[in-house]
Structure formats: structure tokens, C-alpha cells
Amino acid sequence: MASSFKLPKNSFQEAKLRRVYEAKDFDNNGYVSTNDYETWGKIAAEKVGLEMDDETKGYWVTAGQSYFGNTKSFDDWIDYFNAFLENNPDNYEEISRDINANVFKAIDSNKDGVVSVAEYKAVVTAIFPDLTDDDVEYGFNMIDEDGDGVLSQEEVATAWLRYYYDEEDTEYKHFYGRWDEKSRGGSIWTWLTSSCYE
Predict the structure, then answer these.
(1) pTM of this prediction?
(2) What is the DSSP string of the chain?
(3) 92-118, pLDDT tens digit by residue?
(4) Which of these, 40, 177, 153, lies nearest to 99 by C-alpha position?
(5) Does residue 116 come out as left (phi exceeding 0), alpha (psi in the -120 to 50 range) or beta?
């Protein structure tokens, strides 16, 4: 079925997308670039005791370029995202899954074909360092639909798609670990409340 919505469609969706956008801006220059994705990858690799090799760096850089292009602000990125939806109304999810394959290869740091709890934790705590182990476990278990203790490429892609495309407040908001007041970026409702009074 063709896509008919634009992002963000409502305040909840904007809060969710802005939270992760700002967290990925490692150099704090106001936008997310391939350099930020490379930094993200380096930090995640260090957290599992590895150095990022050239192949893995390539996955991170390709993912950053695919997701953010040459956008220079959150609003610019939303326009980029909406143009993607408009240009691919019948197959945007299929294309997104293909793009997400680079992210999966990037976070599968030991290249065994699945993402472990340690690998997932390294990736999400690199952007949200205040997540507790319980927060990480909550997000991991939400993605791990078959409960086998590891994340498959299909599970990661499905949860990622729902995080970015779901307009409603669903469990998939915890894709990057449990989202509450303890996590960097605050809660949805804290963000919405404060933004209403600015």
C-alpha cells in the first residue's frame, strides 16, 4: 500500500525523531553527518573492545549518507525524509530495509550474523550514555521477537521501521533502549510539555 503520510505528522512523532536526531549529532554542529555516524561506530566498537575496521567504517558511513544525505538541520532532514516517501510511495519500506542492512552489518561488530546484547548495548549507549542496563535490556527484548537472545537482521529492520514510521506511541519507541526521564533527551511528555511553553 502506498504511503500517504509525511513526517513528522504529530507532536509525538516529532519528539521521537528529534530526540534521536540530536543524540546522533556527536560534534554538536546542529546536524547529523557521515562524520557523526563514523564517530558513533568508533564509540560502539570501543565499547565491545574492538577497533573499527575499514569494512565496518564503510557500513557506518553508508548508513549515515543513506539516512541523512547532505541535510544541515532537523527540518532539512524531515524534508529529505518526506521527499524519499513521496518518490517511493509503494516500496519505501522495502528500500528502507535494504538501507538498514548496512546498519545491521555495522552493529554486528563480530560479524557472526546476529546482534548480541553486548553489541546492541554498545550502539545504544554510545548515543544515550545514561541508559541503565535495565533500559538496554528492555529495548533489546522488545526487538527480540522470537526471544532467542540475539537479534536477527529481520528483527532489527522491523523495529527500526516501526520506530521511524509509526505515528502512534507504541513499544517501538524503545528501539534505542527504554525511553524515559533517565535517558538522554528526556521523556516524550517532558519534551512535549516544555516545548508547549517556549
Answers:
(1) 0.87
(2) ------S--SHHHHHHHHHHHHHH-TT-SSS--HHHHHHHHHHHHHHTT-PPPHHHHHHHHHHHHHHHTT--SHHHHHHHHHHHHHH-TTTHHHHHHHHHHHHHHHH-TT-SSSB-HHHHHHHHHHH-TT--HHHHHHHHHHH-TT-SSSB-HHHHHHHHHHHHH--S--GGGGTTS--STTSTT--HHHHHHHHHT-
(3) 899 999 889 988 999 999 999 999 999
(4) 153
(5) beta
